[in-house]
Amino acid sequence: MPRSLVPAMLARVEEIGVKHGVRIAIIAHAGDGHPHPLLITPLGDDNARVAAQAAFADIIDQALDLGGTVTGEHGVGCSNATA
What we know:
This protein is an alpha+beta fold. The chain has one domain (3-65). The chain contains two helices and two strands; from the N terminus they run H-E-E-H. Strands 1-2 form a two-stranded antiparallel ribbon. The longest helix has 20 residues, at 46-65. It starts with 5 loop residues before the first helix and ends in an 18-residue tail after the last helix.
């Protein structure tokens, strides 16, 4: 997205996190217009997973609304790995 709109996107992501009750961190590349949201949920919590997926759909919609695009640069999906 245009770098000038990154602050607006970050605000929208924060609102989306509150709306869905999901903890969201923005990692990597935000300064160059490529923010990467990381949605954090407890392992094995299906309700949290569903909420995170809904939040992610909202994030995609908002990125597109601001003239951005969406890619799978660092991979997309859910991890069920245990630490």
